[in-house]
Amino acid sequence: MSAKRNEHSTPHHDKLPIRMLHDRVLVRQETGEGERRSGGGILIPATAAVGRRLAWAEVVAVGQNVRTVEPGDRVLFDPEDRAEVEVRGVAYVLMRERDLHAVAADRFEGSEDSTGLYL
Fold it and tell me: What's the helix, strand, coil split of the chain in %, to 5?
């Protein structure tokens, strides 16, 4: 299992010169801080005041002790509790696995007891 995990610790498409340690997860946020649309199509400006809002990101690398997420998964996290790092001009967010709130992955589809999110 550890050999398989090490294969996935660095994404093949980015060739990042990083090996994540312990329970760390490196993610790339999917959307910026700009405007967004509501479910009804209403444009919400970036300056609109909102409550505490969680964000989605794509997992790009995981440490050897991470058990619930893999590179390519989408995860839900609190953007207030994050450490940012820039690698080769791309901004990433570094966090511990326990700071993730949910996981969305294709491997959950078709599972009898799954809703598609691991909450």
Answer: 10, 35, 55
Name the amino acid, one letter, at 52.
R
CATH number of 2-31+58-118: 2.30.33.40
Alpha-carbon span 54 to 56, nearest angstrom:
7
SS3 92: strand
Rounded distance between C-alpha atoms, residue 100 and residue 102, angstroms: 6
Q: Token pair 């949910």 is at which residue?
A: 102
pLDDT digits (tens, 9 = 90+) for 21-62: 898 999 998 755 555 666 777 776 666 656 677 889 999 999
pLDDT at position 98, please?
93
Residue with tokens 């326990």: 98
Q: How much is the pLDDT for 75?
A: 93
Confidence at residue 97, expressed as pLDDT on a 0 to 100 scale? 93
Q: Which one, of 98, 94, 110, lies nearest residue 61 by Cα?
A: 94
Q: How many whole angstroms separate alpha carbon 43 and alpha carbon 61? A: 33
